[in-house]
Amino acid sequence: MQKGPRGGKEIYNRRRKELLNKLQGGVAIIPSGQELIRNNDVHYPFRQDSCFYYLTGFIEPESVVILDPSSPNPFTMFVRERDPSREIWDGFRYGIEGAGEYFGPNKVYPISEFHTRLPEIVKNAEKIFYKIGENKEYDQSIFEAMEKARRLKGRSGIGVAALVDVKQIIGEMRLFKTPEEIELLRKATEISAHGHIAAMKVCKPGMFEYEIEAEVEREFRRRGADRLGYTSIVGSGANATVLHYISNSDKMEKDQLLLIDAGAEFGYVTGDITRTFPVNGKFSASQKKFYEAVLTVQKDCINFVKPGGKLPDIHAHAIEGLTDAMVELGLLKGKRKELIESRAFFKYYPHGTSHWLGMDVHDAGLYSLNGEPRKLEKNMCFTVEPGLYVSESDTEAPAEYRGMGVRIEDDVVVTEKGCEVLTKLAPKEISELEGFIGKSV
Ligand code: GLY
Ligand code: MN
Ligand code: MN
Fold first, then answer.
1. How many Å apart are CA 14 and CA 19, to the nearest integer?
2. For residues 89 and 192, what is the distance between their CA atoms, to the nearest angstrom?
3. Contacts of range 314-319, beta carbons closer than 8 Å, 24 or more positions apart
4. Taking a C-beta distance cutoff of 8 angstroms, is the pair 320, 332 a contact?
5. Which residue, 436, 373, 320, 363, is CA-closest to 177?
6. Pocket test for ligand 1, best of 213, 228, 261, 384 (most atoms within 8 A of CB)
7. Topology classification of domain 10-174
8. Domain 176-436 is in which class?
9. What b/e readout covers 184-212, taking b as 16+ CB neighbours within 10 angstroms?
10. Of 215, 261, 265, 363, which one is the catalytic site residue?
């Protein structure tokens, strides 16, 4: 087993230094993710909390990081002690010595001492940087320690320290991707694209959605993905109009479209790709018209990405193009301006066009600054994912489009003059798709 954090200690050291510089007068308390029970004594697979991982590269649960810029020991870790009897069942743990040796803290303590050491940690802090509400036990300990620290100040009239959401601060750091992070994103999105291609190749009428799900995920793992970035959506026919359809349980019929929204996680960053294509490999005339409308808008939106642009402007662009398409397809009647002002378009396009992408599929980072949508800057990464969805029961829609759903989603990173499309390997042109579908043998 390769020991220590992925990519080497230096990356995490740099991130901690940057955060320490933003913590003046305060101390950050950042717990790891928690192991969660699925049912009885079965746990969900553990995946480290993104902010905790970002600062440490340490992947064990039951750990806490303390960052205190005013201390001679600014980086402290609390970790599980080694336990041979547990390690037989759960595998290797670093323990106190290993964490100290491989992860670079100034001090390491057993996690069992966290609650008793906490009052000392928060004693002189004017601000506590912490994520409230994710772990009730830690919330309570921290509140109690803050109150204890206030009481120790006697009748000074000084109140408890201020609580500041550390995720917002780390989120702003995570929003701007470093060259190493962009390299990981390239890898995660490349694996993700290969998963979609694999699905296209095997897809045939009569297969079940879960067989396609299995194919996508097999390809992800085969190519070294650590896990999924989120639960795969594999929806055929009208299931494609259900935005978070994850049961993936239906049989696919020859005249249906299939929507796959799936992304591989690699090195703690994820891809997020959606492709939609005909189950039988050939777009019908109606499917083609519907699909082309979304594709044109999606490509226009990508061309619109550049430094200085704004996500709401890209979304507005998508809404305009899709509203025109809705009129063209006979889904709506009226003038673009009025259909947008009355939000009539929302019936067929009920979601946003973009979200930040990185360690979390809906990644950290502010969307507005001082109440204004923020400007795009180089090295920000996000999705472009317009769609069009017509409910099966929509008797106002032309019959040929009822139960049709199309979304096309790519991942982009902002460059000097425009953007790099990280997911370009995944086919989306009609001619390319028709060349791939069902062509595994
Ligand atoms: N896969 C989740 C999303 O596209 O936002
Ligand atoms: Mn997305
Ligand atoms: Mn998606």
1. 9
2. 32
3. 314/353, 314/354, 314/384, 315/352, 315/353, 315/354, 318/349, 318/353, 318/386, 319/345, 319/349
4. no
5. 363
6. 261
7. Creatine Amidinohydrolase; Chain A, domain 1 (3.40.350)
8. alpha beta
9. bbbbbbbbbbbbbbbbbebbebebebebb
10. 261
Question: Cα of 274 to ligand 3 centre, how many Å?
Answer: 6
What type of residue is 300?
Answer: D
Question: What single-letter amino acid sits at 375?
Answer: K
State the pairing for strand pair 387-389/75-79: unpaired
DSSP 151-188: HHTTTS---PPEEEEHHHHHHHHHHS--HHHHHHHHHH
Q: Is 351 a catalytic residue?
A: yes
CA separation for the pair 135, 282 (Å, rounded): 50
Residues across the chain: 441
Q: Residue 387's Cα: distance from chain center in Å?
A: 19
- In order along its 441 residues, the chain shows pLDDT tens digits of 889 999 999 999 999 999 999 998 899 999 999 999 999 999 999 999 999 999 999 999 999 999 999 999 999 999 999 999 999 999 999 999 999 999 999 999 999 999 999 999 998 899 999 999 999 999 999 999 998 888 888 888 887 889 999 999 999 999 999 999 999 999 999 999 999 999 999 999 999 999 999 999 999 999 999 999 999 999 999 999 999 999 999 999 999 999 999 999 999 999 999 999 999 999 999 999 999 999 999 999 999 999 999 999 999 999 999 999 999 999 999 999 999 999 999 999 999 999 999 999 999 999 999 999 999 999 999 999 999 999 999 999 999 999 999 999 999 999 999 999 999 999 999 999 999 998 875
Which residues have any ligand 1 atom within 6 Å of their CB? 230, 261, 272, 355, 361, 385, 409
Alpha-carbon distance of 90 to 13, in angstroms, equals 28
Q: Please check whether residue 218 is in contact with residue 197, taking contact to mean a CB–CB distance below 8 angstroms.
A: no
**Residue 41 falls in the annotated catalytic set:** yes
Hey, where are the domains in the chain?
A: 10-174, 176-436
Quick check: do 10-174 and 176-436 share a fold?
Answer: no
Lookup: tokens for 273: 């790709």
- Residue matched to tokens 């809404």: 319
